[in-house]
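Many introductory courses stop at the sequence. We go one step further.
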Amino acid sequence: MNEITYQNKLIKKLQVIFPGCFVLKNDPSRNQGLPDLLILFRDQWAMLEVKMSANSRVQPNQQHYVDLFGEMSYCAFIYPEIEEGVMRDLQSTFGAYR
């Protein structure tokens, strides 16, 4: 599986866990380092930077944006090994539980 395939599966999971949410993919050619996904749910938002593993390369500015947007709302790196924990954190942030 590559990162695009993982992103697409992740978007589908997010739409099941958070019915009615909007998941927008950011264009890396316009804002280098901006997290991949913006999730809009009810009156809240979160961002996720999608990686294939803990060892995936972090591009310039990615850590900066994850930290910055994490202070404003919820923002995190996500990859298969920690996906379950990130999803729990998102549920807590959004006040939505399965």
